[in-house]
Structure formats: structure tokens, C-alpha cells
Write a structure and sequence with these properties.
This protein is mainly alpha-helical. The radius of gyration is 49 Å and the shape is flat. Helix content is 52%, strand content 0%.
């Protein structure tokens, strides 16, 4: 704030208590608080007006720059503007075009593509789970794998469903 330490505030408070007296001290503190509040509001208002003036000046400069750019663009558009004209077609170009069209019309049309049929994948019979045979070296039998359950839709008509 004003680089005043708490000890200095305590000293100012003690002097104010002695000079003003305990009876009038709350009223004096309220008056000082209101004065500080007014000063802060005035400073805030001044700062707001200053910021508004700066924004307005920046907007004015920006508007002037946009008008200058717009003026240069419009002056460039108005002077010596000549649109590109299509050249008159010559007899040679027309003859070449007609010759190319004749060659294309003489070509046979392309063969039509055969129709593509997309069939759902056929339900292949599920082979029994192949269990690897135990190696000849091991004397212990390998644990048996449980057979996988098949879905009912995947079962063949001759077999019963394995549930």
C-alpha cells in the first residue's frame, strides 16, 4: 500500500486513541473510511474514462487505416481496369475440335461392368479344437482343453446343437 508496516499502523492507532479519545474514535474511523472510499471511486472513474479515451483513439486510428486501405483498393479498381476478353475463336480451333469429337464418337463404348453381388459369408463348420499333442519327452499328460461352445446359428443341420 504505502509501505507502512503493521507496527506503524499500531503506533498511528495508539496516537489517534490518545488524541481523539475513545468516545469519538469510531466516528472518526468511519469518516476516514468514507473519505478513502470516495477517493478510490474517483480514481476508478478517472481510470475508466482514461481507458475509454484510449480505446476511442485506437478505434479512430483503426477506422482511418481501414478507410485508407479501402480508398487505395477502390482507386486501383477504377483506374485502367480492363477485363480479360475471350479471344475470337479461329477456324483452326473449331476444325480441331470437330475432328476430336469425330474420333471420340468413332470409338466403341466401354463394356458395362458386371454386377457385383455381395453374399453373406457362408457358415463354415467349426472343426473340433485341435489340441497339440504332448511332446514325447514329457511323461505327464497335458491338461485337456474344454471344447468351445458353438452358436446355434452356426450349427449344421445334421448336427445337434452343443449347449
Amino acid at each position: 500500500m504505502f509501505d507502512i508496516a503493521w507496527s506503524e499502523f499500531m503506533l498511528i492507532g495508539a496516537v489517534a486513541l490518545v488524541v481523539i479519545g475513545p468516545k469519538d474514535l469510531p466516528k472518526a474511523m468511519r469518516t476516514v473510511g468514507q473519505a478513502v472510499g470516495k477517493i478510490r471511486r474517483m480514481a476508478s472513474e478517472f481510470q475508466g474514462q482514461f481507458n475509454d479515451a484510449m480505446r476511442e483513439a485506437e478505434l479512430h486510428d483503426l477506422k482511418k487505416q481501414v478507410e485508407d486501405v479501402g480508398g487505395t483498393v477502390s482507386s486501383a479498381m477504377n483506374t485502367d481496369f480492363k477485363p480479360i476478353e475471350m479471344p475470337a475463336s479461329t477456324g483452326l480451333d473449331d476444325a480441331a475440335l470437330k475432328e476430336a469429337e469425330a474420333k471420340l464418337s468413332a470409338l466403341p463404348p466401354p463394356d458395362p461392368l458386371p454386377p457385383v453381388e455381395i453374399a453373406p459369408p457362408a457358415a463354415a463348420p467349426v472343426a473340433e479344437a485341435a489340441t497339440p499333442e504332448p511332446a514325447a519327452e514329457s511323461s505327464e499328460p497335458a491338461p485337456a482343453k474344454a471344447p468351445r461352445k458353438r452358436k446355434a446359428a452356426a450349427a449344421e443341420p445334421g448336427e445337434g446343437s452343443a449347449a
